[in-house]
Amino acid sequence: MRHIYVYFLCVFVFFGSVFCQDPPPMPSAEVVIYEKTLNQFFSAMGPIHGVSHTSSGDCEWTVKNPHVVLQKEGAYFAADAHIQCGLINQNTVVKGVMDLGYDSEKNVISAKVKQASFELNFDFFGNKVHIMDVDISKYYKSQFQFTGPQPLQSQMVLQLPDGTTKNVTMKQSNTQLNLDTHRIVVSSDLEFK
């Protein structure tokens, strides 16, 4: 019977220590940009048209449905491409990588297509023949920019109850850009002196 009491005491202490830990400190400010926002930005550009020159002639292509996929591991770009080379019509997928950043001096969060390409192939008697890779990142030069978590003012004059004033300086520190599923989170701490 005594062993049962000791066992329950140990289980209670273990689970109590696991579930009663202090949560990690919260940042003073966060700015969250959702994947949907970036997708609306790229969709507003509309279809992208181009021509690639090959040794066997020109190939016209159209890129539609550009979208961004945000995951903890990275930010990816994708789209659908339709290619026409003479009598050959082909649909394929554009795959790419996004470049995300936060400039603390300018307080700007940015997202840009770093690399995006699709393969130009044709089917020759059941065999896939690779002609070339088409890099379309140059067509997506526009960069999405959004204001970060830095406060608008760095100094304030506070009116105290006794009628005097106090100068307070606000400084941003510990700024981090993190990726989560379907969102970019830029957080920072604010120090008041």
Secondary structure layout plus pairing:
Blueprint: H1 2-19, E1 29-34, H2 35-43, E2 48-54, E3 57-71, E4 74-85, E5 88-103, E6 108-124, E7 127-135, E8 144-147, E9 155-159, E10 165-180, E11 183-192
Antiparallel strand pairs: 1-11, 2-3, 3-4, 4-5, 5-6, 6-7, 6-8, 9-10, 10-11
| Low-confidence runs of at least 5 consecutive residues | none
DSSP summary, beta strand count:
11
What gap, in angstroms, lies between the N and C termini? 59 Å
Query: What is the average of the pLDDT values?
Result: 87
Strand-residue proportion = over 45%
**Nearest-angstrom radius of gyration?**
27 Å
Helix/strand order, N-terminal first: HEHEEEEEEEEEE
Shape: elongated
Separate helix tally: 2
Give a quick account of the main beta sheet: strands, pairing sense, barrel closure. 7 strands, antiparallel
Percent range of helical residues: 10-25%
How does the helix and strand content classify structurally? Answer: mainly beta
Keywords:
11 strands, elongated, 14% helix, mainly beta, 61% strand, 2 helices, 4-stranded antiparallel β-sheet, 193 residues
Quick structural overview:
The protein is built from two helices and eleven strands, in the order αβαββββββββββ. With 193 residues, it is mainly β. The strands form two sheets. Strands 2, 3, 4, 5, 6, 7 and 8 form a seven-stranded antiparallel sheet that branches.
